[in-house]
Amino acid sequence: MPKGHSQTSCAARFTDKVAVVTAAAGGIGGASALRFAQEGAKVVIAMDVNPAVKRMAGPIQDAGSQAACIEIDCTDERAVEVAFEQVLSHFGSVDVLVNGVGGGGGGRNTEFVESVPDTWRRIVDVTLLSTMLCTRRVVGGMRERRYGKIVNIASSIALVPTVKMVEYASAKAGVIGFTRSLAMELAPFGVNVNAVSPGPIKTAAMDSLPPDLIARSVNAVPMGRIGLPEEIASAVAFLASDEAAYVTGQNLAVNGGRALN
Ligand SMILES: NC(=O)c1ccc[n+]([C@@H]2O[C@H](COP(=O)([O-])OP(=O)(O)OC[C@H]3O[C@@H](n4cnc5c(N)ncnc54)[C@H](O)[C@@H]3O)[C@@H](O)[C@H]2O)c1
User: Fold this and answer.
1) From ligand 1's centre to the CA of 144, what distance in Å?
2) CATH number corresponding to 10-253
3) In testing the pocket of ligand 1, which one of 201, 209, 226, 228 has its CB within 8 Å of the most ligand atoms?
């Protein structure tokens, strides 16, 4: 078995591990942060621009982990640097990073013929730059320790073209490209980098979309239903665990079969 990997029961896949989850005040990030705590993580660090992230401390601690909740804009280079310096000085190292921050324009999306550079900058910053900035702060330590798990939240929209989603699809396709290329660089160091591409999932981001867009997304899902944040957290936890030690550079679509049609 590779260094640092051991066969453990499913319920304790993250014993002694320090996990950072961004977008942790939200549906998918929150469910993922909680899953790490439920599966024995020593520390779960929840980051989000929304001050409501502080509310994650209670559930994380109730599940038995130490919690740190950091209010931070993950597109702010300096803020990310400072936050990760604090995390590393407090907890020593980061074993797992889940890059959950991303966004697609909140239903104000247009067809490309009306697309403007400001929208691109905003969506690419939130979706791709945030992922780059947070990952950049942990890769050095992971390489040195020859251990680390990075899971990036992409989207099925990067796989299945959708009208009025050009900016978001491009940024999420960037997340998948980032995942694959970084996986190649980090494989010799025993660091796994993977992505999860959710289909339509019941979160505030989904609830904010116009009803016709939600109906269209659900109708396109062969399983005929919207997914739950916990179903994404299951995939995230698998890829962040040692059960997936030999999986890297992959994009796991969790979307009720959306990419099949
Ligand atoms: N819900 C879906 O159907 C769906 C589908 C595919 C992909 N995704 C992706 O899943 C991820 C999580 O989204 P969600 O559905 O849980 O949405 P959500 O709205 O429940 O959560 C998103 C969280 O991200 C935070 N956030 C936004 N910008 C930030 C920034 N700059 N810095 C720090 N935090 C920031 C928000 O405050 C919010 O708490 C996103 O990357 C999204 O693109 C969601």
Assistant:
1) 30
2) 3.40.50.720
3) 201
